[in-house]
Design a protein that fits this description.
- With 189 residues, the chain is an all-alpha fold.
- It has 2 domains: 2-157, ABC transporter type 1, transmembrane domain (ABC transporter transmembrane region fold, Up-down Bundle), CATH 1.20.1560.10; 159-189.
- It is built from 6 helices and no strands.
- It has helices at residues 2-8, 15-44, 51-104, 107-112, 115-157, 159-188.
- α2 runs parallel beside α5 (115-157) and α5 runs antiparallel to α6 (159-188).
- The protein is elongated and about 85 Å long.
């Protein structure tokens, strides 16, 4: 937990960007879940009402779908661009803290440790951590929203099939957790 608290403190100066990133992730997820439902409604209900109804509603529907695509594009752009800027700034902050820590270490530490390993940690490991800092929360948030939203929509469409899919998903989740524990034990144990 102390490592997690140290990690979270790097988000503090970028709270606005982080929460905007999460808001854009919410918009992207909602739009992604809404598109199939709108198209399902159009093919099931709208296109069976005749040409007059189609000609009257289709321009509004096209405009709405275009607006949703633009909103999704802008959300994705913000997530990609500003999220990467936030990740790069967090990486810079982490790099500075690590460099300051290296400055405080004794000369005997440098005699005992390989300079190449320290440089590797300073360069590549921090890059990976900053990528996790940017993509991790956003991807988890988007995935959770899409999974919960998909199951909610499936429940609305077909309850028995949703329960079967939920059981299969739960079995797969438990299997993945078990496999990850076994792999972690074989690597670290």
């Amino acid at each position: 937990m102390p490592v997690f608290k140290k990690f979270v403190k790097y988000y503090k100066p970028y709270r606005f960007v982080f929460w905007m990133d999460m808001f854009c992730a919410l918009i992207v997820s909602v739009v992604d879940l809404a598109f199939p439902q709108i198209l399902n409604w159009a093919t099931r209900d709208l296109f069976t009402h005749g040409a007059q109804a189609i000609y009257r509603i289709l321009p509004w529907m096209a405009g709405g779908l275009l607006a949703m695509y633009i909103l999704r594009f802008l959300g994705r752009y913000y997530i990609t661009y500003q999220g990467h800027v936030m990740g790069a700034r967090m990486e810079s902050d982490m790099r500075q803290d690590l460099f300051d820590h290296f400055q405080r270490l004794s000369f005997s530490y440098y005699d005992r440790n390989n300079t190449g390993e320290m440089m590797s940690k300073l360069v590549s490991d921090l890059f990976d951590i900053s990528e996790l800092a940017h993509h991790g929360p956003e991807n988890i948030f988007i995935s959770l929203l899409k999974i919960v939203g998909s199951f909610a929509l499936l429940l609305w469409i077909n309850v028995p099939m949703t329960l079967i899919l939920a059981a299969v998903t739960l079995i797969m989740l438990l299997f993945c957790i078990d496999q990850n524990k076994k792999n972690a034990c074989s690597v670290y144990g």
